[in-house]
Each structure stands twice: as structure tokens, then as C-alpha cells.
Amino acid sequence: MKCACGRESVYYQRYANRWLCEDCFKKDVEKRVRKVLGREVIRNNVKIGVGISGGKDSLVMTYILKKFYDSIPNSEIICFFVDEGIKGFRDVAKKYVVEFCKEFDIDLRIISFKEEINYTMDELVEKNYLKHLNIGKPCSFCGVVRRYLLNKYAFLNNCTYLAIGHNLDDFCQTILMNYIEGNVKNIIQFGKDVSSSTNFVKRIKPLKLIPEEEVILYAKLNNLKYQKEPCPYSHLSYRYKIKKIIEMLEEDKPGVRFGILRGYESLLKLIEYREGNLKKCKICGSLCSGELCKVCSWLEILKGL
Ligand code: SF4
Ligand code: ZN
């Protein structure tokens, strides 16, 4: 089939019922990333901290950001890679990240769970320590601590924004997971991406409008090498089940993922966000409802084990 421009197509965009050639496909992806970021983010005098994991999303995101900012004066990109200590997984990802940053001449900082919290993820699972924190699934700990560390280092490095590689599917999963579990506060916080905490770096999610299969194709067409194997703990997560449900819905009704996102964003506009009476965490200074924030209280318990 031919693309509207007359060239041979490489992709059928089911939800839009159109065929795209390589060039138009790449432009379409980049146009949507530009739309999400807007002029407020794509400008000069900006330092973007990027959470890079070695997977397709973060590499595609960094590649596109680099392309955008290369011609913008006084702009900078710095990547943060969190090594949770998951053998056979994150150590492999690290190689892709190191090579990628070297090839594209991007500053890279490596942050390790072992150095930061004294344990690797593997040790916490092997020793069954998560049960002392009342945590059932590894991701519930790992994901929160990862975000905490990314924010910490983006803040320490004076980043204007922290870019997270969530694609459209990730967004839909988070939205549905929180709806189903009734986590109203999380739903709002996730969408607003703000906090009055003085050490919070505003997050941006450039791939918000890009479905997973398009991230994969974009990576392939640009010869980006990334880690394909999933984390050994990921199948234990609730997210994994929701992912499968969304894939089924999309198969049945193309465009459903954009529908979930649109509905959620319309809802967000109607909600006034109030953080309530928050205190400063006595250890790290983040805003929280108790004396310590969630991460610091977990780390305190771990110290006592
Ligand atoms: Fe951590 Fe879960 Fe991601 Fe694995 S899948 S790296 S355990 S958050
Ligand atoms: Zn804290």
C-alpha cells in the first residue's frame, strides 16, 4: 500500500485507518512529541533530566529529545540510569544505555540501589524483606524508589524538567489501575505532575501520545538497540494484567487507548487539586502527610532489619 505522499508504506495506523511511509511515520511521531511538550518545554535555557532505563521507550524518547534540542542554544540533556540490581536484566540494559549515550554524546549518571539504599532489588526479594514493609509485589517498592531517586538526582543536577518515557499504553495502564483500585489521589497526582515540594522537579512525558507498537517501530527504523527482555519481576505486577486487557480492548476497537486518555484528561480539568496539609519529611524534605515520606519510612524499616 502507498502512503498519502505516494511512497511505499511501512506501517498501517489502525486507529487512524491510514498507511504511512517511513518518513511520514517518523514525522508523525515527532510531531506528536512536539505537541505534548509545546513551546514551554522546547525552548532555550533549559536542562532536561532524562530517566533512561535501556528499554525502547526511554531510548526513543531520549533520541527524539536530543534531535529537538541539538539546535537550541543553552539547552542541555542529562540522562539518569537507575540500576536496581536485577541480575540478567538491568546489567544488560546498562550496556545499551552506556553505548547509546556514548554514540549520541549525552551526559550519563548511574545511580545504584545498592549505594543509595544498601540493598539490590534481588537481595530484597531473596531475603523476603518486602513483607516487612507490607509490600506484596516487587514493583510496588522498586517503581516508587526509582521515581524518588530520579527526582532526587534531577533536583541535585538543577534540571528544569524530568522526562519520563511513558508511552500511551503505560498511561492507560496507570489510569485504569488507579481507577480499579480506587486510588483517587494517585490518579490526580499522576495527571497533574506537580507538587509544591521545593525539591520536586516537574515531570514531562514526551511519549504520552505514542502507542507502544509505534515506539517499537520508531526504534527499529532508527536502528536503536535496546533491551527487549522484560524484567523478571514484571509478570508479578498488576500492571501486566491490565496491559493484556487494554491490548484486547484495542484489538476490538482501535483507538480505545486515546479514548481512555482523553476521558481521563477531561476529568482532570474538572478537578481542583489540593495537596492538603502537608509536612516536610524529616529526612529528605519531600512533602508528605506524616513525619516521614513513604520512601524514607521504608528505608528506616530496612535499616533496622
Ligand atoms: Fe522494578 Fe518492576 Fe520495573 Fe522490574 S518491572 S524494574 S521490579 S518496577
Ligand atoms: Zn523522605
Roughly what is the average pLDDT, rounded to an integer? 94
Instruction: List unreliable stretches of 5+ residues.
Output: none
Strand order of the largest sheet: 5-4-3-6-7
- The whole-angstrom Rg is 20 Å
SS content category:
alpha/beta
- Measured as a percent range, the helix fraction is 40-55%
The bound ligands are: iron/sulfur cluster, zinc ion
Domain tRNA(Ile)-lysidine/2-thiocytidine synthase N-terminal: 48-230
Binding site for ATP: 51-53, 57, 82, 165, 170
GO cellular component, one term: cytosolic tRNA wobble base thiouridylase complex
Keywords: ATP-binding, Nucleotide-binding, Transferase
Q: Keyphrases for this structure?
A:
305 residues; alpha/beta; Rossmann fold; 12% strand; binds zinc ion
Provide the fold topology:
Layout: E1 11-13, E2 18-20, H1 22-41, E3 46-51, H2 56-69, E4 75-83, H3 90-103, E5 107-112, H4 113-117, H5 121-126, H6 138-156, E6 161-163, H7 168-181, H8 184-192, E7 203-204, H9 212-221, H10 238-252, H11 256-270, E8 279-280, E9 287-288, H12 294-303
Parallel strand pairs: 3-4, 3-6, 4-5, 6-7
Antiparallel strand pairs: 1-2, 8-9
Helix pairs in contact: 1-9, 2-9, 7-8, 7-10, 7-11
Bound molecules: iron/sulfur cluster (SF4) and zinc ion.
The site of iron/sulfur cluster has 10 residues, from helix 6.
Keywords: ATP-binding, Nucleotide-binding, Transferase
Domain 2-thiouridine synthetase TtuA-like N-terminal LIM: 4-25
Binding site for ATP: 51-53, 57, 82, 165, 170
Describe this protein's structure.
The protein has helices at residues 22-41, 56-69, 90-103, 113-117, 121-126, 138-156, 168-181, 184-192, 212-221, 238-252, 256-270, 294-303, and strands at residues 11-13, 18-20, 46-51, 75-83, 107-112, 161-163, 203-204, 279-280, 287-288. It is an alpha/beta fold. The protein has 12 helices and 9 strands. It starts with 10 loop residues before the first strand and ends with a helix. Bound molecules: iron/sulfur cluster and zinc ion. Iron/sulfur cluster is lined by residues 84, 121, 138-139, 142-143, 231, 233-234, 237.
